[in-house]
Design a protein that fits this description.
This protein is an alpha+beta fold. Helices cover 30% and strands 22% of the residues. It has helices at residues 6-16, 32-36, 80-87, 93-99, 125-130, 147-158, 161-164, 207-210, 230-241, 281-293, 318-321, 325-329, 348-351, 357-363, 379-392, 397-406, 434-445, 458-464, 529-545; strands at residues 40-44, 61-63, 70-75, 100-108, 111-117, 133-139, 168-181, 185-187, 192-200, 248-255, 258-264, 274-275, 414-415, 431-432, 449-450, 453-454, 483-489, 492-501, 505-510, 515-521. The strands form five sheets. Strands 2, 4, 5, 7, 8 and 9 form a six-stranded mixed β-sheet that branches. A six-stranded antiparallel β-sheet has the order 11-10-20-19-18-17, with helices on both faces. The chain has a three-stranded antiparallel β-sheet with strand order 1-3-6. Helix 9 (230-241) runs antiparallel to helix 19 (529-545) and helix 10 (281-293) runs parallel beside helix 15.
């Protein structure tokens, strides 16, 4: 047994009392306001340089406005890397900053609303090594870009801050701790805390804005006579009018094949062609199923090697020849393409500037993952699916889609997005009115039939509405370009498969209840877009129309 050294005893003592030695020498604390407010967070209603900040500038109350400055000043007695060093004294400064950052907790009236472990990339490495104070705008009247803006948006619009900060007076508290993530997340001691009284003004909303919108004639749907909880819909309309649900353009509910609710917002109407972005991907799934049923494709197990001379493309790997249509439909093709990763070579943002999207996709390198096993959102793969269909169906895909899908559904007005070769892109960008999107959803609820005519094979719909990633417990699931989603009302769960597009656009088909819901929105690239649409469905629409 090795003897206990003085160094070991010193380390044990320091760890016991939470007093490890500094790993890095922090900057000197010389500012008077910082000295007076060590380990504090100040919330300010204007941007003031630290050297100009005076005690008289620190408000006790702020009249909260979403377009006015809400500035955060943090004063600590050490730098972040030294706080992280307390959590693991064995790591270097750079190792600590790769695994840790600040943890922010937001409380309203003493209740924890949101806790976030800030991404390790937020803030500069140098500042996190030596700085003992920092400023970050939570809301900027000048639209200043920063990680604080997105942190506030996640608290306020995604995780319930906007619901907690109702009209009236509230105490907003923010706490900061260091966190370190290795096999698990370890959180350190409180290093800064601040609170401010916020006065939230009441918004003037008219009864007309809240009222249920009557269904006008000539919808193309039989109108339902079913009862539903109108107060729930009025409460939803009020939140949309108050901008608590943002940039929603339409809501349509079909129950038992009949139109139950039809509402429009933000200058949208029945004839508006809604830009639903990746909702269009699910149309690729439908068209692939139709083409297979008619024999233009053998089946979804056909491989890329049957359609392309892949050695002509960059990063050739024999594995590319074995990529199946099914793996493209289930986003598991094993290409190194991940739209959620900015550094991924196959990210869709790298595709759009190129002059040939199909070539871009087939040039993407392969990963080591087994084809069909690992899910990764790969828009470029859907472009390839569309190109294969365009090659194989008579008169090209645009004509085929019109004849085989839209004409049977009596959909006459729509717009495609096109590739640089002026072929329709199945990656997204499909525009049509909300009632026509509802027809597409109801077609799937009808097991592929529309007004007595078979449009899509029932077996294909069953495959499309199957979860191919049930072993992934952190993922609700994915079918053939349809997302699986579980909605919950009370203790009851409702399985759905849905088309989903940037901005919060949804066509939702419930598997066990006779319900189709369309939500369209323009909250493009906003963190809250999908969560607010799903909250509308789960907390308002389902409780309003489902008989419990």
């Amino acid at each position: 047994m090795k003897p206990i050294t003085i160094l070991t005893l010193s380390l044990i003592f320091n760890l016991s009392f939470g007093q490890t030695q500094n790993l890095v020498t922090p900057e000197k604390i010389e500012n008077t306001v910082q000295k007076n407010h060590l380990n504090s967070i100040l919330l300010l209603d204007k941007v003031i340089p630290l050297d100009n900040l005076k005690e008289s500038d620190i408000p006790k109350n702020i009249n909260f406005q979403e377009d006015k400055d809400l500035d955060l000043r943090v004063f600590m007695d050490n730098s972040l890397v030294n706080y992280l060093h307390e959590l693991d004294p064995t790591l270097t400064a750079d190792e600590l900053l790769k695994k840790g950052n600040y943890q922010f907790s937001f409380l309203v009236d003493g209740k924890v609303i949101y806790v976030e472990n800030l991404n390790t990339g937020a803030g500069t490495v140098e500042n996190k090594k030596i700085k003992t104070n920092f400023r970050i705008p939570l809301i900027s009247s000048g639209n200043e870009d920063s990680w604080g803006k997105y942190l506030w948006s996640r608290f306020y619009l995604v995780h319930g801050g906007i619901d907690a900060l109702t009209a009236g007076n509230h105490l907003l508290t923010i706490e900061i701790r260091p966190y370190l993530k290795s096999t698990s997340v370890k959180t350190g001691r409180l290093i800064a805390k601040g609170e401010i009284n916020l006065s939230v003004p009441k918004k003037n909303i008219s009864e007309q804005q809240i009222a249920l919108q009557p269904i006008k004639p000539n919808s193309g749907w039989e109108v339902s006579k079913d009862q539903f909880k109108t107060e729930k819909i009025k409460a939803l309309n009020q939140k949309i009018a108050e901008n608590r649900f943002r940039e929603i353009t339409s809501i349509v509910v079909i129950k038992n094949k009949k139109l139950l609710i039809e509402e429009y917002f933000n200058s949208s109407g029945r004839d508006s062609l809604q830009d639903t972005r990746s909702v269009g991907k699910s149309f690729a799934s439908a068209l692939a199923g139709i083409a297979i049923k008619e024999g233009y494709l053998k089946n979804e197990n056909q491989t890329l090697g049957e359609f392309y001379h892949l050695k002509e493309f960059q990063h050739y790997n024999p594995k590319k020849d074995s990529v199946t249509l099914k793996s493209l439909l289930t986003m598991s093709s094993s290409f190194e393409g991940n739209d959620d990763d900015d550094d991924s070579p196959g990210n869709e943002e790298n595709m759009y500037p190129t002059d040939n999207w199909v070539k871009f996709a087939l040039d993407v390198p392969m990963t080591d993952h087994k084809i069909g096993k690992k899910w990764s959102y790969f828009t470029a793969g859907v472009v390839v699916t569309g190109d294969i269909l365009d090659q194989k169906v008579p008169k090209g895909l645009e004509s085929y889609a019109k004849e085989k899908l839209f004409n049977p559904l009596e959909i006459t007005t729509y717009q495609w997005q096109y590739t640089p070769q002026h072929k329709i892109s199945l990656a997204g960008g499909m525009r049509m009115n909300s009632l026509d999107f509802a027809k597409f959803g109801q077609l799937y609820k009808n097991n592929g039939e529309w007004k007595g005519k078979k449009v899509i094979d029932k077996a294909w719909i069953k495959k499309s509405f199957s979860n191919y990633f049930s072993d992934n417990k952190d993922f609700e699931g994915y079918g053939y370009l349809f997302w699986r989603k579980i909605y919950k009302v009370g203790n009851k769960s409702f399985e759905a498969y849905q088309c989903s597009g940037n901005g919060g656009n949804k066509i939702i088909m419930f598997t066990e209840i006779p319900l189709v819901i369309v939500v369209t929105a323009k909250a493009y690239n906003k963190a809250y877009a999908h969560s607010q649409s799903e909250k509308i469905v789960q907390e308002y629409l389902l409780p309003a129309v489902y008989e419990q």
